[in-house]
């Protein structure tokens, strides 16, 4: 059974809270979903190779950049707001790819935005907790990456 769109948008928003690029990139890179009967076939359009390449580069760049000691906290410089926008964009892209009507698209955007904020706080709390215990930051970052990538993959599966 396929998870409802708002649940998928919540999962993608949580991923965007951890890694902001995943909000828009995961739907761009994910498998093309089957459209429900009566829905627009255009919703299942596959982005161009150039768009997919830019999405891959953005995600890889963020994954690498997050491991650098000079990377600022996600809570600084409008980070939470950006991650909320990323989650909202991801929710919209999920909905559009499935040919969802406008009300469902708005619900997905709101779910993605709220989960983006929650994911930002949860990710920052996780990293702070492991730092207080004296654990190295790189394994914590890699664990967070794995969770974020798994959430994004689940949210965008066909």
Structural class: mainly alpha
Number of helices: 6
Biggest sheet: strands, sense, closure? none
Taken as a percent bin, the fraction of beta residues is: under 5%
Amino-to-carboxy terminus distance? 11 Å
Number of domains: 1
Number of strands: 0
Overall geometry comes to globular
List SSEs in N-to-C order: HHHHHH
Write down the Rg: 16 Å
* Mean of all residue-level pLDDT scores: 87
Tell me which oligomeric state these chains represent.
single chain
Protein name: DUF4126 domain-containing protein
Molecular structure report:
It is a single chain. With 158 residues, this protein is mainly α. The chain has one domain. The chain contains six helices and no strands. Helix 2 packs across helix 6 and helix 5 packs antiparallel against helix 6. The protein is globular and about 45 Å long. The termini are close together. The mean pLDDT is 87. This is DUF4126 domain-containing protein.
Secondary structure: elements and pairs:
Layout: H1 5-18, H2 22-29, H3 49-65, H4 79-97, H5 102-132, H6 137-156
């Amino acid at each position: 059974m396929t998870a409802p769109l708002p649940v998928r948008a919540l999962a993608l928003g949580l991923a965007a809270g951890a890694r902001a690029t995943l909000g828009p990139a995961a739907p761009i890179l994910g498998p093309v979903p089957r459209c429900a009967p009566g829905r627009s076939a255009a919703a299942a359009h596959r982005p161009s190779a150039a768009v997919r390449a830019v999405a891959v580069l953005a995600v890889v760049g963020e994954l690498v950049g997050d491991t650098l000691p000079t990377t600022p906290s996600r809570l600084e410089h409008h980070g939470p707001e950006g991650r909320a926008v990323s989650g909202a964009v991801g929710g919209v892209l999920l909905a559009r790819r499935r040919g969802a009507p406008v009300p469902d698209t708005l619900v997905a955007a709101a779910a993605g935005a709220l989960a983006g904020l929650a994911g930002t706080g949860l990710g920052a709390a996780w990293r702070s907790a492991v730092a207080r215990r004296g654990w190295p930051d790189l394994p914590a970052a890699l664990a967070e990456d794995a969770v974020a990538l798994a959430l994004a993959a689940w949210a965008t599966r066909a």
